[in-house]
Design a protein that fits this description.
single chain, 206 residues, alpha/beta, 6 strands, 34% helix
């Protein structure tokens, strides 16, 4: 069973925590991690891009000049793609970028991401994270005490003071257990989680 140190907000070790091997020592499937990241990024795309094709641009109903005798290249419409204001060749149209993964693949990918964090010593457990006031400096002091610069902060509850204190810090994102995802775990590298949050993760994914 994986075992990690538990720290307080001042960076001092206050105990140990046993982690469920089914979640935090699972086989690391790089292919599933790739699929999960691609799916998550694709599903964020709105797909609302649109440009007008030659048939959709207004105007250009008559030939700009006669076919022969002008010295110009022959032209059929001022809305042809080579003209300014003309239609776009192979113009983008609205589409749905949504891609799916089945439930087992999603769970396996998340377990792989968490197991990778543990294997690389990038999972930092804090006994609790709580602030009496909304102050970015206080949150930054906690990160400095834990020697963390970039982190995905996993909370067991939506604590307003904590979330707002962290909001203006670059390369730091807070989330609750129901928002846990592969992309953020991999993107931020270090996972800073409360002990209660990890217990909830084990309850959901074990």
């Amino acid at each position: 069973m994986a075992n990690v140190s538990v720290f307080n907000m001042q960076g001092k070790e206050v105990g140990k925590m046993d982690l469920n091997d089914a979640i935090f020592a699972a086989p690391i499937h790089e292919h599933l991690l790739h699929l999960a990241v691609v799916a998550q990024l694709a599903n964020k795309r709105q797909g609302t891009q649109k440009a007008l094709t030659r048939s959709e641009v207004s105007g250009g109903g008559r030939k700009p000049w006669r076919q022969k005798g002008t010295g110009h290249a022959r032209q059929g419409s001022i809305r042809a793609p080579q003209w300014k204001g003309g239609g776009v060749v192979f113009a983008p149209t609205p589409r749905d970028y949504t891609t799916t993964m089945n439930k087992k693949e999603k769970r396996a990918a998340l377990k792989s991401a968490l197991s990778n964090a543990v294997a690389e010593n990038k999972l930092i457990v804090v006994d609790e994270i709580h602030f009496d006031e909304i102050k970015t400096k206080n949150f930054q002091n906690m990160l400095n005490a834990l020697n963390v610069q970039k982190a995905f902060v996993l909370l067991d509850e939506n604590d307003k003071n904590t979330v707002l204190s962290a909001r203006n810090i670059q390369d730091v994102k807070t989330a609750q257990v129901n928002e846990l995802n592969v992309y953020d775990v991999l993107r931020y590298g270090t996972v800073l989680a409360t002990k209660a949050a990890l217990l909830k993760v084990e309850e959901v994914y074990a």
